Amino acid sequence: MKIDLYDNEIIKNNLKKRKYKDKVLKIVTIIATLIGVFFLIALLIQIFSNGLKNLNWKFITSFPSSRPARAGILPAIVGSVYILILTSIISIPLGIGTAIYLELYAKSSKFTNFIKLNIQNLAGVPAIVYGILGLGVFVKFFMFGSSILSGALTLSLLVLSPIIISSQEAIRTVPYSLYEGALALGVSKWKAIKGVIIPCAMSNIITGIVLSLARAIGEASPLIVVGAATFIRFVPLSLFDGFTVLPIQIYNWTSRPEPEFQQLASSGIIILLLIVLIFNIAAIIIRKKFEKKYD
User: What pTM value is reported for the model?
Assistant: First the structure.
C-alpha cells in the first residue's frame, strides 16, 4: 500500500510538472506570436500612412523621375509582371515534371538519391549565388544581356528547387492505392498520373508554387547582379529589353535622402503587396476548385 501511494504521488507530481511546462510553453508561444503580429501591424501602419497619399493613377502610369512630384512606377510594374509570368512559364512545368519523374518514374538508386539530395540543398542556397550564376550563364555565355529573359531564367533557377520539393511532397500525399487502381483498369502509366495523381495533388502543388513565386517577386539581389536597371524611363516591349522590377525601384527610392522619395517607396511597397495578394487570391481560388472536385 505504501508503495502504491508513493507511486501515485510521483505520478501526480509528474503531471503537475508537465501541466506547468505546458502552460509556460503556451504563454511563450503566445507572446512570440503577439510580438511578431505587433511588429507586422506597426510596419503596415507606417507603410500605409506614408504611401497612401501618393498612391494614385498618375503615380502608377508615370515614369521614374529625379523630381518626386513627377516620379512614377510604371516600368517597374510592367517589368515585375513580365518577370513573374515568364518565371512561371519556365519553372512550373519543369518543377512539376521533375517531381513526377523522381517520384513515379525514376528507380531508386544512388544516383537518384544524389539528385534528390542536391535539389534539397539547392533550396537553401542564397539568392545572390543564383544571380552570379545567371550573370555567368545567361548574360555572358548565352549573350542574352541584361534582359527580361536573363532575369526570368535566373529567378526560375531560384524557385525551381522549392517547386520540385513541394510537388514531390504533394505527390506523396496521394494514396498509392488510387494509382494502382488506375493501372489495374488498364490505363497507361502516364494517363494514371495525368488523370489521378496530378489532380489529387494539385491543391498542394499550387500552394508550393504560390509560396515559391511570392519569394521570387520580392527578390532584388539576383536581378541586380544580372543587370536590372535601377532607373529606366521606358516600358520593356520584348524579352531582350532592359528592365527593372518593383523591389529594385523601391530600393532606389529608399536610398535617396529626400523624405518625398521615402514616401514613394512606401507607395511602391503597397503596389507590390497588392500584386502578391492578387496572385495569392487567384491561386487560392484555383486550389479550392481542385479540392472540391477531388475530395
Answer: 0.83
